[in-house]
Specification:
Distance between the termini: 22 Å
Largest sheet: 7 strands, mixed
Shape: globular
Helix content: 25-40%
Order of helices and strands: EEHEHEEEHHEHEHEHEHH
Number of helices: 9
Strand content: 15-25%
């Protein structure tokens, strides 16, 4: 989730199937650099797995999705909490977040894993659970913001207290820290880490365990959206799943 701000204001409205009339719901989200889910390349339109899925869902729902300039992760979260943004992508449904948000039904599954530099893989092959990091005195790199499962949430304070946890703001930064030997293991979204590692030319391998595999949702701002908006979006997801449209998009990115 790279903090790169677009210099000019972007306001791209994705048209719905409702000609010559306002869409029943018009929601704002901020772009980000989080390949392969959402990203922009020079002189190219924003793209990515989650963006394609969301655009398809909004078109089917008859809603307009307004894309605003990129924001760093922490600022994007604050904007959402303050009502400046209506929707966030790939969200985990938690009790804490339900205080300010409502969640769509799932539109894909996320996978969070532990990775090491490939040449280091034999050293950590025996690790069978994230709890083993403390016992092995392993230093960990993890994203500064986000939900990465109950097991990591429970372990995080102990790793911090023991000095075995360092955090990063985006996966490129985290992988550079791994390459420089700042830690032994990196935690994060599996597809995002593999994508950034290929871009950097860094050989990484997943440890033989999955930290988290869970559904993700569109997270709608409870103060700026309605239950009717949520119902439109949920109905669209249901129809597109039955039609195989969302599966086709996920398969093109290697996500099932």
């Amino acid at each position: 989730m790279q903090a790169r701000t677009v210099g000019t204001t972007v306001a791209l409205l994705y048209a719905t199937a409702l000609p010559a009339q306002a869409a029943p719901c018009q929601l704002k989200m901020a772009l980000e650099q989080w390949p392969p889910y959402v990203y922009s390349k020079p002189n190219s339109a924003p793209t990515g797995l989650d963006l394609e899925l969301t655009q398809a869902i909004f078109r089917e729902a008859g809603c307009a999705l307004q894309l605003l300039p990129e924001l760093p992760t922490a600022r994007r979260q604050r904007q959402f909490e303050q009502g400046g943004l209506d929707v966030l992508l790939a969200a985990s449904d938690t009790a804490e977040r339900r205080k300010i948000a409502r969640f769509s039904i799932p539109y894909r599954t996320e996978s969070v894993s532990l990775f090491v530099r490939t040449e280091q893989l034999p050293r950590y092959q025996q690790l069978r659970g994230i709890e083993g990091l403390l016992g092995m005195q392993v230093s960990l790199l993890a994203p500064k913001i986000g939900w990465y499962g109950a097991a990591y949430a429970k372990l995080q304070p102990q790793l911090l207290a023991s000095g075995h946890l360092s955090t990063f703001l985006n996966f490129q930064q985290g992988l550079r820290m791994l390459e420089a030997g700042r830690a032994d293991v990196i935690l994060g979204d599996s597809a995002a880490l593999r994508y950034e590692a290929r871009e950097l030319g860094l050989a990484i391998s997943a440890l033989p365990l999955t930290v988290l595999r869970a559904p993700v949702h569109l997270m709608l701002n409870k103060n700026t959206t309605t239950l009717e908006d949520l119902e439109l979006i949920n109905a669209a997801i249901t129809r597109l799943e039955k039609q195989g449209v969302l599966a086709e998009i996920r398969n093109r990115y290697g996500e099932f």
